[in-house]
Every structure is written in C-alpha cells, then in structure tokens.
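Thread: Newbie trying to understand structure tokens

Hi all, I'm a second-year student working on a class project, and my supervisor (Dr. K.) asked me to get a predicted structure for one chain before our next meeting. I've only ever worked with sequences, so writing a 3D structure as a token string is new to me. If someone could post the tokens and maybe explain what I'm looking at, I'd be very grateful. Here's the chain:
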Amino acid sequence: MARWVRVEAARRDLSVSRFLADLVRTQMLSERRYRQSLRSALARKPCLRSDGRYLAREELHERTRVR
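---
Reply by user tm_fold:
Sure, no problem. This is what the structure looks like when written as tokens:
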C-alpha cells in the first residue's frame, strides 16, 4: 500500500502527505454529501395511497411488468 501511495503521489506531482490529505478530504466530503442526502430523503413524507398502504416500487415509478 505504501508503494502505491508513493507512486500515485509522484504521478500527480504531489507529496505523499498532500496526496493523502486530498484523499481524506474527498472521502469526508463524500460522506457529508451522503449524510445530507439521507437526512433529506428521510425527512420526506411517504407516498401513501388513499387506503393507507405504501406504493410498490413499480406503482411509484409507474412501471409495467414485462412478460
């Protein structure tokens, strides 16, 4: 793993510490966006039919079965 890090850092003309910092920053931003999206999705009200049951995936996306 250490060899890969050194090679990738050199390929990008970065120091190993800068390369690792960029990797960590990218991962942190990705996780932050995921958490924000998850909170947003969970905050939505469920799609209910008038009879109170949840719609099936096909119904929700208006998909028809292929036979």
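A couple of things are worth pointing out once you decode it. The chain is about 65% helix and 0% strand. The radius of gyration is 22 Å. Feel free to ask follow-ups in this thread.
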